Structure prediction request, 613 residues.
Amino acid sequence: MLFAALMVVGSLSAQSLDYDKLTPHPRLLLKTGDITAMRALPARSATAKVVHDRIVAESERIIGLEPVERVKVGKRMIAVSREALKRIFYLSYAYLTTDDIRYAQRAEREMLAISEFEDWNPVHFLDVGEMTLAMAIGYDWLYRYLPVHSRSIIGTAIYEKGLLASERATFFNQKNIWNPVCNAGMIYGALATMERSPEYCRALIGKCMDSVPKGLDFYNPDGSYVIGYNFWGHGTGFEVMLVAALQSALGTDAGIAAHKGFMNTASFMNYLVAPSGKVYNYSDAKEEAAMLPVKYWFARQTKDLSLVAMDERMIKEGKVAYDRLLPAYMVFASSMDLTKATMPKNNVWRSGGEIPMYIYRSGWDKTTDTYLAVKGGRASSPHGHMDAGAFVYEYDGVRWAVDLGEHDEHTLEQAGADMWNLKRDGGRWNIFRFGPESHNTLMINGQRHNVEEVAPITEVFNASRHHGAVVDLTSTFAGMAQSVKRTVELDKNNYLVVTDHIACGSQPTKVEWRMATNAEAEIIAPNTIQLKQDGKTMYLRLRARGEVDAVIWPDHQYKEYEERDANLRRVGFVLNLRANENVDVEVTLSPERGKKGISLPKIKLDMFKKKHK
Prediction:
């Protein structure tokens, strides 16, 4: 079914676009009646009123600012493009919903200033993609307001500095976040200015639509997102903007809504937000969560309001960022009864593909609910880290096992760090946050992980009182051990148990079991570390044969340009194993100082034992 869906998107989407159905302006995102619905929404939804008021208040602030200038930071002008998008989108929305001419006038002034830029920085085409989308929204939403002369200047700039610039761009063939962002920008520019050069705009849209499947690969096969939480808002945000514009302007989703992984991805994002309100921030992501406007498109498309129940709660909690796509919330939510949004009923997420993931949460309503997230994958994925087998764990309202997440890209590039070299010997892994030393996983013989092969999740446990997953790390540690399989699970009390089944090679093997935490740590026995945080205590305890040492690693010696990690402690154990030894290394984390409290059913690993006995 997935292959069939991809074939629909890849081979039929461009040909299926009927330009005879092109709607009049405003045609981007907005259908007949949407402006009226947006105007009415704040009166019937308290959360929508919060969003509306925020957009209008920010638009009021923007009126007093000078237009953006063409300023580059390093090779990028992306900050300027993003600020322009926020300003133009907010101001255009404010005008359409209030009829206050000042907002349209200020948006016009912004767009005319941007039209005078020498270019929109095509050497870093992401900048062009966002700027073109920004200008297209303003041109389209304010079409009936803009004087003919201004409309001509802005339309010419979209054509010359946006659409024509794509003729030398490479994003069409890229399988990264540039694909959806740049495709969306070019399609917006072409749809907005279609009347100016119909044949050219149609050809460019066709070229973009042939490229779309490469961006959709991010969601294969189940909807998890390779690059993580923050980039989801960027990449998926623009993918949604793209398909929503096709729906409003041409009356078709071009098959994109038939893509299983893409349509599941909003649900995945709910699972990434833990009971504490923090995000599972694997790859280059932050811990902070906020309402995601484009999730409301998925809720509208599927008629499943549980997809946005968490976002509605975030709005009530004040977690509304000044997202440049925030007005999209008002567009997509305007046709829904948001008071009927209830939390999801399922507590488990599992996905495969390039980013295998298992997530369990004991509930959706309490900050003290238990949360366990486990991932496989490979370090060479876009924005990847050496974190195969890593986990995040929350118990009793505390995140005991943490992930450090992102590092500012520009800082590293300015320092000359080789951060985009994803080979095993590449410079990316010299950055503390990216390498294995900072993650909740294993290191064997002090070596880096292998980066090319995906570590799959091969088994999950979803009994009523037993939850977890098995990650096969054999390829991750190929050449360092014969076989490594990690089982991460919760017992009937929701205490954590991590068991590593290791078959050593022909040489003695040093295994480092590592976990990052913000808790105060103290070694109280050779195999036990006491953790204290927020007035609560947990015990990290190892059980295995052989020579074992509990370790609290010294503070990392950061490079001058690296971001520091406040309150970080790296705890764990070091084991020295004999050549050809097979061992089960069990580590538990519970509030029980003694053995009691850990209760698990026996896991059968017959295949492992037969192969390596």
Q: What stands out?
A: The two ends are 41 Å apart (CA to CA). The chain is about 35% helix and 20% strand.
